Amino acid sequence: xxxxxxxxQTAKVVGVISDEFKEPVxxxxxxxxxxxxxxxxxxxxxxxxxxxxxxxxxxxHITQKKIVAKFNLKTGEILExxxxxxxxxxxxxxxxxxxxxxxxxxxxxxxxxxxxxxxxLNPGVENVIKLMGxxxxxDDLSSQYTVRxxxxxxxxxxxxxxxxxxxxxxxxxxxxxxxxxxSDMIQSVDFSAGGFQAKYGDKLSSVLDITYRxxxxxxxxxxxxxxxxxxxxxxxxxxxxxxxxxxVRYRDNSLLVxxxxxxxxxxxxxxxxQTNVNYKLNQKWELSFLGNISQNKYNYQPLTRQTNxxxxxxxxxxxxxxxxQENDKYRTLFGAFKSTFTATENSNYKxxxxxxxxQEQEYFDIDAAYFLGEVDSNIGxxxxxxxxxxxxxxxxxxxxxxxxxxxIVNAEIKGSHNAKKKFQIDWGIKYTRENIRDxxxxxxxxxxxxxSINPPIIDLPVNDQPYNPYVGPLVPFKNVRATNFVDINRFxxxxxxxxxxxxxxxEFWINFGVRAHNWQVTGDKIADGKNQIVFSPxxxxxxxxxxxxxxxxxxxxxxxxxxxxxxxxxxxxEDGVVNPDVKAQQSIxxxxxxxxxxxxxxxxxxxxTEAYYKTMSDVNTYTVENVRIRYRAxxxxxxxxxxFDMRLNGEFVPGTESWFSFGYLKTEENQDNxxxxxxxxxxxxxFGILFQDYMPTLPNFKLYLNLVYSTGLxxxxxxxxxxxxxxSRLRDYRRADVGFSYVFTEKNKDRDxxxxxxxxxxxxxxxxxxxxxxxxxxxxxxxVRDAYTKNQYGIPNYMTTRVFNLKLTARL
Length: 812
Prior knowledge:
Layout: H1 2-8, E1 10-16, E2 18-19, E3 29-32, E4 35-38, E5 44-50, E6 55-61, E7 64-71, E8 78-80, E9 84-85, E10 91-93, H2 98-104, E11 108-110, H3 112-117, H4 125-129, E12 135-136, E13 146-147, E14 155-159, E15 162-163, E16 186-192, E17 206-212, E18 219-225, E19 228-236, E20 242-252, H5 254-257, E21 263-266, E22 269-280, E23 285-310, E24 315-344, E25 347-375, E26 387-419, E27 423-448, E28 451-452, E29 478-503, E30 506-524, E31 532-544, E32 552-564, H6 568-571, E33 585-600, E34 603-619, E35 622-625, E36 628-631, E37 637-650, E38 658-671, E39 676-678, E40 685-695, E41 698-710, E42 733-746, E43 762-770, E44 778-786, E45 791-798, E46 803-811
Parallel strand pairs: 1-8, 2-9, 7-10, 14-17
Antiparallel strand pairs: 1-5, 3-4, 3-6, 6-7, 11-16, 12-13, 14-15, 16-17, 18-19, 18-46, 19-20, 20-22, 21-23, 22-23, 23-24, 24-25, 25-26, 26-27, 27-28, 27-29, 29-30, 30-31, 31-32, 32-33, 33-34, 34-37, 35-36, 37-38, 38-39, 38-40, 40-41, 41-42, 42-43, 43-46, 44-45
């Protein structure tokens, strides 16, 4: 009887032990009150500990410094704990339950190794995010993405707790080049698609939180492919006082853009250098610096284009002959300094200062003469497939001389305080100053069959030549001219509390916080804007019931009032005029989700599902052309978005992680009480597959697959058109990217010192096929007029076709 009582008063700690390079630590000893167990080859372990009192568990390994962790668990409780061992100093750990914390917050964690391996035209973090449920990307060549009905400006991105900005004038995915995030420097990636905490900033849709790693020893990584190359170097001092990681990347997109229908003289090049330096002054103070320099050059000289469309009975071709060129440049400098002060075991403070400077130039003069003709569809004809009759002739001249210079500086203080390991308070205060100098000069002239086309929104005499002479003025079809000098001062802050308690035998978490944001817009030749302030309360609840066996579930509810105070682009309307009194867009989030962990085929799996509803007011409506957003700057609409996401991920193939995702979304807006219509991001269905595999008989030969299918977006209408009269959609998006890789060595296993591969930690040679099935995916339509039939045709602008790439990757 006594024995059974003693046995019942125990709990279990389970998990996986890894080192600072995220490799499993096998053979580690886990000791608690005289009882010792060892970790398996994959780093996994299980240890039984006394319950209902605080006990100490010690993790030791012959090559690593020990970890001392304290636990106080209830009878029968099973706790997941994932310690990370390193070789620099003894660690005292108060137990941060990684898996629970991420599930409680509704955060998806992405593995850096998976990010680097999955193929894509823009490989990296954003490439993997686009495989999730209700997320989408506007262009194969773009790193921008939409989340649950939001646009590309509604997503927060942090690197080492510093907010990251992107260029202003980018209008096409092929102009973007490199994402800010260097995948070779990443330690961890967390992503939240809604209902996020108050500690994150003021955007409506999502948060991407990235942390760069701190090297513990020298290392180097290199990559070379037909699209460019990269090199990364890790440095660390012997006493581990300082460390630095530096990456250089170069990319040439000629291979990709030359696969499109438009023949060009074109070589877009992109280069950037990033560094992250850390210095530990003593046990309490740590300093770090994050810096980035990038330059994108986009020189574009289109020559000809032919697009066939229409039906089998009436095939039509658009032929375009170009003159002129485009010359764009984007130069950015970014630097951030962070100081961390650990005052006590339970309190720390951070000071963060950053500056971002971008100089952007967008110059082009492109004259396009087009012919809209009938195609010979007679298979036996000598002219089969050729244009035999031109029934529409016209021209289009586009001109731009756009310059932008922006400086954004931030200063922030944050603090975190723990009380009794169950209650935590976080707070922060931030000042931001944005200085924008912007000149816009762009116009477009359209001529159809000899007649200049007037703008559709200006009251001008009807042009019905040659029947009657036109007596009105000749004006450009589009004409935007503006010069803006704008300053925006912002003060923001937050406070939030995290509490863990119990409901019976179930663990229960509460996170409540509030943000405040105050801003004012001033500038030369514009009236000072109103001093505006908004408050954003946010709440998260999570429940983890006690379950028997090797499965667990976490239920989540999140809600909050989210504001997005206008950035410069949101203040500027379609005519380039700045409205300093634009209000913050407002959205109320309701999110319910669950994470279910289980085992299948004796391997770990996770099923994640979330349902959401967002109601929005003071919406700043916009149009989208490729990746350029033009706001109306008038807060004239209300909107909503709802849907659900599901994802199943796990080891479908032993030793590799794969996932299957599905998302349903509906989002509509009501402009000026005219009724609800689809928003530009209303992408109803989305399927995504990320799959990794290898040959059992040849395990060094590996496969990586990226599959996406989504229904078409609204956007098949001219950008100037009344959205209520044009609700056509682009065709469905279908894409498959596959990568094959032969791994010569991985983690330097089973090599003697004399072998030539011993010097490499990893070495692999890969072959990639982008757009495997050569699907024609459209990004926008080109609208041309047929003077003969009086019709207007939308001709799809297709993205990239099938492209092949070779890639060599090495890590010392």
